[in-house]
Amino acid sequence: MKTLLKLVASLFILIIAALIIIPVLFKDDIVQLVKQESNNAVNAKIDFGEFDLSLIKNFPNFHFAIE
Question: What is the pTM of this model?
Answer without folding.
Answer: 0.54
